[in-house]
Structures are given as C-alpha cells and as structure tokens.
Amino acid sequence: MGVASAGHAEPRRAATPLDQVIPAPASVKAGGTPYRITSGTRIRVDDSPEVRRIGTYLADILRPSTGYRLPLTTQGDGGIRLRLAKGPFGAEGYRLDSGAEGVTITAQEPAGLFHGVQTLRQLLPAAVEKKSVQPGPWLVAGGTIQDRPRFAYRGAMLDVARHFFTVEQVKRYIDELALYKINKLHLHLSDDQGWRIAVDSWPRLATYGGSTQVGGGPGGHYTKADYQEIVRYAASRHLEVVPEIDMPGHTNAALASYAELNCDGVAPPLYTGTKVGFSSLCVNKEITYDFVDDVIREVAALTPGRHLHIGGDEAHSTSPEDYAAFMNRVQPVVARYGKTVIGWHQLTGAGPAKGALAQYWGLDSTSAAEKAQVARAARNGTKLILSPADRVYLDMKYTKDTPLGLAWAGYVEVQRSYDWNPGGYLPDVPESAVLGVEAPLWTETLSTSAHLDTMAFPRLPGAAELGWSPAATHDWDTYKVRLAAQAPRWDALGIGYYRSPQVPWPAA
Fold first, then answer.
1. Which residues pair with 36 in a beta bridge?
2. If I label 451, which of 11, 36, 287, 303 is the partner at 20 to 30 A Cα–Cα?
3. Can you list the pairs that 400-407 forms with residues at least 24 positions away whose Cβ atoms lie under 8 Å?
4. What does DSSP say about strands 102-107 and 94-99: parallel, antiparallel, or unpaired?
C-alpha cells in the first residue's frame, strides 16, 4: 500500500464511478475491486516510441500530485499498462480494464491510448491535476470501459485574428481540448482585423496586416517556426491543426497590406472595429489568384493535417456570381497542394468540390431555403461539420448579464448548448452525412486566456460529448451532474469558468 503523501493523513474517498466521465463512454461495466496507485506503481508501455510518449505524458501528470516515481518499464505485471493491440477500437477507441492488480488501457492506435489516458485522469481525484504533492488515496474504480467516438471530426476553433494569442496561450487551450477528446484545432488565422501567419512570398501580410487587432492593440503574428510549434504540440495531444485563411471576404488585413489586391489599386486603412461583410478580394484580377496560390502553398507546406479551411462566409461585398467564380478557382488550388477543402456553409451555394467539407454555422431560425441548400449539398456527397451558432458558438453570451461575448445569435446557456442532436439537427440531412461537430470561439471581445476559459467552460465539454458519445447516452439531467463534478478539476487546473445556475455545482 502507498504511504500517505507529505505527512498528510489520507481522507476516506470513494473511487469515481466509471460512468461519471465526460464525454460519456460508449459502454461501461462496473464491478470488482478498485486499483490503487501507490509508491510501487509502474507505468508499463509497449516498446514503441508512440506508446512511450503517451506513458511519459501520463507520468508527467501523475508525479507532481502523487509524489510517486512512477517509472516507465516494458517488463513485469500490474501497475498501469498502456498497450496497442488489434481489436474493435477503430482509429480512436480504447478499452480500459481496472481491478485490484492494475489498470490496462488497450487501443489499436496511439490516439486511442491517449484518449484512454484522458478517461483515466477523470477517474482519479481532481487533485491529481495539481502541481504539488496532495493526499491520496489514488483509486481507480473497478470494471471495464469500452469506448469509441460517434463522429470522426470533433473540433474547436480559436479565432486568433480578432485578438492575437501567443503560442503559449494556444498550447494552454490545446491542453484543455485534449482533456475532452477533441481531435481538431481550427485556427482562424486571418480576418479584417489581423493577418496572423508569416507568408514569405507576401511578407507585409504579417508584418503590416498583423500589426493590430480589435480595439487597436499591437496584434502580432506567428513566424513559420511558431506555427510549426503549435502544430507539433497539438500533434503530441493527438489534435490536427486546421488552418483557416478566410476569403474572399474578411480580408481587410490583406487588402491593407497590398494595394494591388484591391480592384481600384488603393489599399484601405488597417481596421480595428468589429463590423463584417465590407471587404473582398478582387475576384476579376489575376494577381488575386497568384496571391491565393502562394498563401495556400506556404500554409499547406507547414500543415501535416489533411484539411485547409478557406472561409467563405459573410462575403457581402462579393456578388453571388463572383463568389461562385472565386470558389471554383480556389478549391482546386487547395487540392493541388494535397489538402481537403473546408468552407463555411455558404460554399454549398457555389458548388463544393468533390470531397469538400461544409461547416454549418446557421441558427435554429435560419431560413428553410438556406438549410435546404445545405441539405442538397449533403445529398450530393458533401460532408458537414455542425457548428450552429445558437448552440455551440462559445463566444455567445450565456445571459444578458454576461460581461464578455456577443449576442447576435441569442443567449446560449449551458443546457441549450448541450441539448441538441447532431445526427438529426438539419432537416433532410442523414447522420451519415455529418462528419462531426465543432465549437468555435470568436474573440472580438476576448483578449486573455481567462476570457477564453470563461466562455469555453462549461460549454466546451458538452460540445465534446456531442461529438464523442453515443446518442443513447444523451440526457441533460444526468449530464449536468457529471458536468458539476468537473468543477474541482478545473479549479485544480486553474481554469476559471461560468457558474451557470442550471448546473448543480459543488459548494465553493
């Protein structure tokens, strides 16, 4: 048995039930003796670099709070075992077996092992997240979890264009996403208010176009090395980075940087407001397509993931004919550089390329005609990512009294954010056409990590559950209890959150 840490007497504490994690697992069979992590526990790993990396990640979480050595080993029995094996897991599923002798997480792919480790974290007391030695005991309830995701695409978007966020701030958000098995980080890298990634062939995009932000602050941009560090860090958490260069609208930062991208050859001033829909690349100038080719080529070369987002929303200053012509020329450029196109759902009105993905951001109240246009594209083979703004836009105010955020899509309390079914959300769109769910976080009013946390938590875990968990597990009354139990973990991790009155939070 382990000794009490740092002279503390261990409190009596029951193990967290296996079915109390977020996202809800596909299948839980509880029973048997809990496993207890002690000073003698080892982390047993397969002799492969990927499994060893995940073992090291787990040890780095457990060591500070338990005070135990938790050495990695490829030998012996018992302890915490991470293993790859063939089985009915898919690319991201896993099985977690817990009993008196140890905990074993089995998966077919490293991503599944990593997701299993996130489940193990949540089965341990919240104090496991702290950076100093805490009193145990460190119990993992007995039984078996078999788990795999409902949808392949489970994303979160961070807008770094309206306000710039540093590499370290983005890494912090990545860690928060990883805890809930999110597997895509969509980075909104360009907009009217700022251009955030260095492009060697058009250097003023970053140095001038990136020099400001909403409200007139100093802005900033990522060097290519910065962006590659974000991509590398996300990959270490089994997230793919999806870069977005929004066009033909939302382009004032680019238009201000290069006069020749404007139809009249005159560069507008830099823009620090929040109105949308006024800017457009010049669709009829050939230099526009040289620009697009250069930017997509350079961004694609830095991005190992499969997807590249070309925006396409709110192009109010581009005629429908010009918009369609632009998209017909730009989509093949993305394919030429080896990427799959994603566009906001307005792309469905312009002829999505074969294999393109459309990201729906409309509301429950969006017109039937617009929804029908999206449904037609889905029937023709365009897969959808669902981001309904009045459900999972994390920058919407919770209530009229929320100091941060916007309210153009309405107020989005925690229950509203959780209580919808992606598989049956859009009329005449079958679940088979839905690739997944993404929760965007726009930053017109958000400029610090604390702001991001307040708006993402507690809604982000619900979006993650909608993407991961079987429809049969979906139930607000049981979910809100599981959600409330996450609060001590957020406290331990230093994540500030909105204490929604809809959730039965533990006493402060």
1. 139
2. 303
3. 402/498, 404/445, 404/446, 404/451, 404/454, 404/455, 405/445, 405/446, 405/455, 406/442, 406/444, 406/445
4. antiparallel
Determine how many CB atoms are found less than 10 A away from the CB of residue 278. Answer: 15
CA distance 122 to 129: 10
**How far is it, in rounded angstroms, from Cα 291 to Cα 192?**
17
- Alpha helix (H) ranges present in 348-396? 368-379, 389-392
End-to-end CA gap in the chain: 32
The residues, any chain, with a CB within 8 Å of residue 367's CB and separated by 6 or more, are none
- Nearby residues of 226 by Cβ (< 8 Å), 6 or more positions away: 167
CA separation for the pair 122, 17 (Å, rounded): 10
* Type of residue at 390: D
> Residue 400 in contact with residue 407, Cβ under 8 Å?
yes
Helices 110-123, 49-66: axis angle to 10 degrees equals 10
Tokens 């140095």 found at? 207
Rounded to 5 degrees, what angle do the CA atoms 419, 437, 475 make? 25
The yes-or-no verdict on residue 4 having pLDDT over 50 is no
Q: Give dist(CA 308, CA 73) in Å, integer.
A: 40
Residue for token pair 């992606």: 422
Residues 6+ apart with CB under 8 A from 322: 248, 280, 283, 284
| 29 within 8 A of 97, measured Cβ to Cβ | no
pLDDT tens-digit readout, 344-400: 999 999 999 999 999 999 999 999 999 999 999 999 999 999 999 999 999 999 999
CA 59/CA 506 separation, integer angstroms:
29
8 A C-beta contact, residue 250 and residue 279: yes
Report d(CA 260, CA 336) in Å as an integer.
25
- Which residue(s) pair with 82 in the sheet? 45, 105
Query: What type of residue is 208?
Result: Y
User: For 223-256, what is each residue's pLDDT tens digit?
Assistant: 999 999 999 999 999 999 999 999 999 999 999 9
pLDDT at 11 over 70: no
Q: Which residues pair with 143 in a beta bridge?
A: 30, 98
Which tokens hold the place of 208?
């001038």
Annotated active-site residue in 314, 321, 370, 413: 314
How many C-alpha atoms does 440 have within 13 Å on its Cβ side? 23
**What tokens appear for 83 in the block?**
């293993």
Prediction pTM value = 0.96
**Tokens representing residue 186 in the block:** 């969509």
Please say if the pLDDT value at position 2 is more than 70: no
Separation of alpha carbons 171 and 31, rounded Å: 37
